[in-house]
Amino acid sequence: MSADEDAWPDLSGRIVEDEGGRRHVLPVRVYFEDTDFSGLVYHASYLRWCERGRSDFLRLAGNDHRALIAGSDNREPAAFVVRRMRLEYLKPARIDEILEVSTRVREVGAASLVLVQTITRGGTELFEAEVMVVLVSVSGKPLRISQAVRAAFGAGSVKS
Known about the structure:
- The protein is α+β, with helices and mostly antiparallel strands.
- It has a single domain, classed as Roll (Thiol Ester Dehydrase, Chain A), CATH 3.10.129.
- It contains four helices and six strands.
- The protein has helices spanning 3-6, 43-60, 65-70, 147-152, and strands at residues 14-18, 21-29, 78-89, 98-108, 112-121, 124-137.
- It has a six-stranded antiparallel β-sheet.
- β1 (14-18) and β2 (21-29) form a beta hairpin.
């Protein structure tokens, strides 16, 4: 990589490998619109940043939302939808801070992914989410996650 490619911020973040495997890291800055009347980050802002992290992870892994919705390889159009979220608000963030949204695949099911997302500031964890997303067709039925998507997330076999 060149020096330019190593520099933050990358618009879509980047996928990194560490001792825990593959994860996506997205830098975000806290703007006034992200805060509430007290000057702290509004709770829904964390959810928005996590959605961006999930979307950019999918995009950088070569399986963006637009391609899924368009359908391909004899597959009907589909999208990942959130089925369940568990949220932990640990410490507050404030305006102008630079945060990192980290997204890691914990488990791959036949039609679902369980992701762990953390938001940190300078290595201090502020927020954690466990998110289950399901791949569904536009008609609403669950679809099996392809081997290409599994490989993109560094996942192998299906967990039942």
